[in-house]
Specification:
homotrimer, 645 residues, alpha/beta, 8-stranded parallel β-barrel, 18% strand
């Protein structure tokens, strides 16, 4: 059964209220608590002088109250004395400026002496608390990459990049060939000549950029693994967790996830709506709810980021936040809705950030479950309601596989390095396809291209520019309806155009060539039957008939057996029709949901979530089924659940 | 009687025209002239070698013509030889770049050796001219802060900030506690670890930022005082003046004003309209007039910046300027209107910038009273008209106190450090309330929260986030109708949320708690009776009834006796209604002015100013009163004045 | 007869396909090929070790196929080993950052040791290939200034600037006077105190900026001349060419052109439309054609950049490019149209960029005549069609002179240094006047103010702020209808306002004074008869009658004999009427072309180009003339040509 929890900072509060806090957490229905991840300056106020006693007492207090503790390593916030002892440990931005102490994440992943310091503090913590029965899990660091901190242009990064290239290419001629450095006399005579791809006169070689992004991602993997290895050795049986972020693709979360037991993420639907690409119309319509696919998208994505499919929400927005351009309050009911939606997608834990709103420092305007004056905030009341709902629903079974959507972090880096049209943004492309699937009522798993695809009934590949022949083979063998989106198979591993033109290895299944591509400025469209193609369209050479043709005669959808290719940015009406056709072939039932409604099936329970401000009547749909939560008429921000009879 | 003057640069012109220039000034009706403030390279062409003779002759020529001289200290433009002798004297911007020689204001306020150089040149000038009878006043430096020059991130500033913090907090633990540095392990072990709050990975601690802003403001105060002290000692009986700017809040003008005799400001209504936040509609409507409240707002603000209420316009726009994005010409009549409006608000002097348009260097496209070919420009003709009007009106008495609006520079810094919604801008909030008061025909004094409030009949506090208990006491004792705007009393001195929630100490007069706040993106509104709440709304817990309620049931105005709280950004119809109610309680008469008309009462004279392009008929209003200037039908850009019979 | 060619990079392709490539070029109708300009790292892989053999073979292969070779010097892409040997050779941007290796153009024009390296490699190439009969021309470097590389703020540039100033002013007092440095105590005691005008606190002295721009331009001239002198000495009889860019004014192309035999340019109509100032409406209407005046404007401009009027298109867009924000494909027919339009304007060569699309590195998404898989791309097919058309048309004679439009690079720099209104952009001003002339069907020559103006029937001077008395004399002597646009004659050589006010020396022909100027924000207009004045309007003092008056009574067109002055930004209806009046006086026939049609006369051949998406019927216009190409009904992207009988 899904647990609830919260993020707590005993070091922020007088010790005499810890006991009461712990008691109130339990009363609210929480059973887990995350602590410690920003406390380095309190654990080690000066170099080598640890002060464990306060944390000992905090852990005891919380544990005694019956709470399970997730203990964070404090490496996201090295103290000032440490930074002053090695000032070059900070990251350097693309403009060449050091990114200084004074907030958080002021370190470069490639700085070896800082890694040694991290190993030291993690070892010390593991030594002291590894066997503590109250500790059930460890969180490594905090939100890798927050504040654009993955890619650094420091001296340390430069040297580490050279080592990474040496490992990859062995000799520099191989690198020159792979990158096509002959192009502008960019050839190197040795790896020691290579520099980070910043501050170049005009755009650097995209192959150079892509390798730098791969390198930067790998640095996160090894940084994380260093901690995990220490913790596993000294704290056996505990889960290893990291808390990922929303709409964030700067490192490969699948790679990091391979070393974790649980992938968790930090869910701030209102902030994400405000800060990302959504239209003004959407930002207003969903200002107090978040777009109905934001939370679900990440639930389904992060479920695919750990081998066992275990995942959690480590930080759940409980009210207004402080960090978006505008920070409205959620509609009454949304905190509960978000919580139950995580449950419907299979979360193990929803942990609210944070227990009590801190009255000081950067996040003083970030709501908590409690107000700064310790009264229960609206979010706290809803957490208690959600706790009761979870009890009422009880244990629910596993979910059968249905649709897999393939997601590639490398694809995101590649298209950023060379978008060819500034509106071609990979994450948006994926999200639009995901949203179309969800509007059809489908359960979706977002998985790595390397994931096992067995048992899925249908596949969606929004775009996979670097497409391996082996994946083509696997998909052929699966034989289920599969859609490949634009630019799939367009590039080699070395960021060159496929010799036989795109879609490269996919041509074995789909005999067609993309002979020309166009990016379209806003307002420029190609008319289709009931849709407009925007942003991107390809010219395809093929003997296959076109399933869909636009006004100038170009085909935009081609199919061969169960495999389809979409030669444009996906217009919503078109892509929903294509998906509907595919589900028919796959034998999957679909719905046509109204705009504000989303559903998900978990085990034998069907959930429905109303993201609108008006009530929605599902009476006809639910019919004879048994309601196990809520009503058939779902009010604004409401939830219903039922089981088929 | 208000004087007229101009800014003159004898060093820019051949000496043989000085005499003629002086004669023409007097003929135009000018009696004061400001000189010298950019002339350092001519006074001291090489280190220590002064060349006073030209200035001796200039002062004599102007003085002999009967002009009173305001002599500027040249410290805003240190010469190249001086900068080269200590290159680290320049300010450093937030990106870490030195702000180099080649224009003006290329110094850091915290650089001690530069301060010594300033003291030296000021002393030398005071020594030579302190007793000169032609000198009636000194202007220190020029436009402190122009071109974003208050906050510097130099080494000098860093060291001075550490000293300032040491003085303020005495021990570093006190600082850590005050700022809440435990939050992200930001704790310091000594003051020597503290750095300026720039180039941090994400936003720095707002308490850190606020103290840095306070420090930077204090640096201006001591920099200015250094000069004032020297001048007062060597030039007794002369007024000490600085020329402030428009819409500028980077340092505390009240603090600097405590060391001055006269607060002056530089009034460029067209440039300010273009460069600041006004809507496109307003920028077009008032493109050749300026928004009708821009000049008045500053008149009323700077009158409150010197103990005695003495103030001037040191630079008055006389025609098109050079520095706005677009630089149209004023409507015929506007230069005269601006001049007489300054008079109506109580100015001692309106000094036009500049006598003659310079044909060279940065400001060659800035109009003067004369054209570059020495013909009288349109602004010069209007200055002469204004001189005649002033004579005609004669000496006018004092003005009775009416409405005080409390303005806090610290509040501006605080909301910049943590706006919580990007449209919450303090200066706009204040201006909107001020404009509403002015549209009701009220005389307004904009004063410091520390000002004596005796004799005011009504108080408006647009927002005062750091609210002292003593001010609450004083306001209670005054017992006049008082409005407090949103976020008043929301923060402690240390930039933390008030323990008992906002409005903190105000709860003694108004028993309510702000339990939650929301910032609203453009387009998101809460509907009220005849208004829309935009930008900001608060959720209030209280037993008080709501005077105004929006559609979702939340109250936005609460009152208790004479004290009111506004829990949202002020919608114009609502705030005008609230002010009207308050004036009724206060026994003050109001008008409902058309959009382009503004009035002010000075002594027994009522002035009216037509900022529109159509004539306005005031016949019914003036009725039996005696016109002392202009006609009852005021033409575009026209002025009328009358006395009640 | 105009030749066709292409840009080819043998070093990008396996040697075994060179012969086939050369053969296919000839078959497609190409006769010239440009090679070598980015090949430094292959010609000299390590310092001083040349590898000529591959280039020997490439030249032999191409030459043997009958192709004429234009050989580029590789100085735009110095290899890494060279940069590492003198890291200070790179340019420094305005923010003070070095502009590093990793793309191209990573050098500072003022770096003397780099110049020596350039001389060395150019000498070595000239030595080896100077007499090679296959080499018919040399291209120096590549696209001077691309990626904003003219102005550098490096130490090398600083020192060179000081030398340049010393040469120009001889003594520093002259400089101080010329710039008006007294203004803000900006006076220097020696040239060694002068710095580049970047990182100043607010805007630097515009006279300082203008001299820095003149200096930077002169550096390009001497950099180019260094190569030309070497090549002329060692490769007699070959043409010296540089390939200029589109809409680029950072250096004086007339000055550089004085050392060349042929001015060539790189024509990318779709990319230029997208990246420059055109309205959204124009960007959508012409998204696959380019604005109808973009290519022609540059043809007519660059024809004026070499003494003999010889010019070429060195790089012609053959399909979608990679570098604009959005990169659509040209309409079918546009590549042919652009080619024939260059012919109609008198080009010697149109060379397509590039032969085959490279599958790797920065420009992998840039189309070629061949696709990456070596199939002929649409652009290749159209090149072959154009080759046939050229054959069909045969040799065509010279064109009689008609309208000269005076273009000044210095004017562009001056208005950038001090626009006075941010919408006053010189290149747009010129383009709008040029477009108006073209819409009247006129042949236009865009020429330097220093050009011989004999035989022109009409002159247009969009604006010439620095107007020499001698040019005024020459124009008086010509006695043909001449229009001077706003701000003409407004500044001295030293960037000061003319003593007798603008238009300065022009007052001899047109007795008027510009007494005041206004820049107008978007939306602010002055109404004229059938037009709105936007952006800029002047107030003119004169006894001349006004030919055109706006609503507030100000005249905007004044004439005296054959000379006219336009006192505002040119509204299209007004300027077309003025030009029509002038052609009448000049005895030139005009047309009133529909929006998408352009015509040009070359010798006795009249060409017409349809830039629209609908067909245009010219039957009535062509009447009894003899069609020599195409039909009287010109289809979208079509061309027609006819001769008068």
């Amino acid at each position: 059964m899904m647990k609830l929890g919260c993020c707590y900072y005993p070091e922020h509060w007088p010790e005499d209220i810890w006991t009461e806090d712990a008691k109130r957490m339990v009363e609210m229905g929480l059973s887990q608590v995350r602590i410690g991840e920003f406390a380095w300056s309190r654990l080690e106020p000066t170099a080598g002088h640890y002060q464990w006693e306060w944390l000992d007492r905090a852990i005891k207090t919380l544990g005694d109250a019956g709470l399970e503790i997730i203990l964070g390593t404090p490496t996201a916030t090295p103290p000032k004395w440490l930074v002053d002892s090695m000032p070059d440990m900070v990251a350097v931005d693309a403009q060449g400026n050091p990114r200084k102490f004074g907030s958080r994440r002021h370190y470069c992943f490639s700085h070896q002496p800082y890694r040694e310091q991290c190993a030291r503090i993690v070892e010390a913590m593991a030594e002291r608390y590894g066997d503590n029965p109250a500790i059930v899990a460890w969180q490594t660091d905090n939100e890798y990459g927050c504040h654009d901190t993955i890619v650094s242009y420091s001296e340390a990064a430069k040297l580490a990049f050279r080592r990474w290239l040496t490992d990859k290419y062995d000799n520099v001629d191989a690198l020159n060939t792979a990158w096509g450095n002959v192009f502008w006399s960019m050839e190197y005579r040795s790896f020691d000549e290579v520099e980070p791809p910043n501050l170049t006169v005009t755009e650097p070689n995209p192959a150079h950029v892509l390798d730098y992004r791969r390198f930067a991602s790998d640095e996160v993997v090894t940084f994380n693994k260093l901690q995990v290895d220490i913790l596993r050795a000294r704290s056996p049986g505990r889960d290893m967790i990291h808390n990922y972020m929303g709409f964030f693709t700067e490192f490969d979360h699948h790679d990091v996830g391979r070393d974790l037991d649980v992938a968790s993420w930090d869910s701030y639907p209102l902030g994400f709506l405000e800060q990302f690409w959504f239209s003004d119309e959407e930002k207003l319509r969903y200002t107090r709810q978040g777009h109905p696919d934001i939370a679900a998208f990440h639930h389904d994505l992060y479920r695919g980021c750990c081998a066992g499919g275990r995942w959690s929400v480590m930080e759940q927005q409980p009210g207004p936040v402080n960090w978006a351009r505008y920070n409205p309050a959620p509609l009454d009911g949304m905190v509960r809705l978000w919580t139950l939606e995580a449950m419907a997608h299979g979360a193990e834990l929803v942990s609210y950030f944070r227990w009590r709103q801190a009255p000081f420092a950067q996040e003083q305007m970030h709501a908590g479950l409690l107000r700064p004056d310790s009264e229960v905030a609206p979010g706290g009341h809803e957490a208690a309601l959600a706790a009761a709902d979870i009890q009422q629903l009880g244990q629910i079974g596993e979910t059968a596989k249905s649709v897999a959507l393939l997601f590639s972090y490398e694809a995101a880096w590649l298209f950023e390095a060379q978008p060819q049209g500034q509106s071609f943004r990979y994450l948006e492309l994926v999200f639009e396809m995901y949203s179309a699937l969800r509007q059809l009522g489908l359960n979706v798993d977002i998985v790595s291209p390397d994931a096992t695809l067995d048992d899925y009934k249908m596949l969606v590949v929004p775009s996979l520019p670097i497409l391996s022949a082996s994946l083509v083979d696997r998909i052929e063998q699966l034989g289920v309806p599969t859609l490949f989106g634009p630019r799939t198979g367009s590039k080699t591993m070395d960021f060159a155009i496929e010799a036989g033109l795109p879609p490269g290895p996919l041509q074995r299944l789909l005999p067609l060539k993309v002979s020309r591509v166009e990016s379209l400025r806003p307002g420029l469209t190609e008319k289709g039957a009931d849709y407009d193609v925007t942003r991107w369209i390809e010219t395809v050479e093929t003997d296959l008939p076109s399933d869909e043709v636009v006004a100038d005669g170009r085909g935009v959808v081609f199919s061969n057996g169960t495999v389809r290719y979409l030669a444009s940015w996906p217009p919503a009406p078109l892509i929903k029709r294509v998906f509907a056709d595919m589900t028919k072939e796959a034998g999957i039932d679909i719905l046509h949901l109204p705009r504000d409604l989303r559903v998900r099936q978990l085990g034998d329970v069907h959930f429905a979530f109303n993201y609108g401000t008006e009530e929605l009547d599902l009476t006809d749909h639910i019919k004879g089924d048994t309601l196990v939560l809520g009503d058939a008429v779902i009010k604004s921000a409401g939830v219903a659940a039922w089981k088929a009879d």
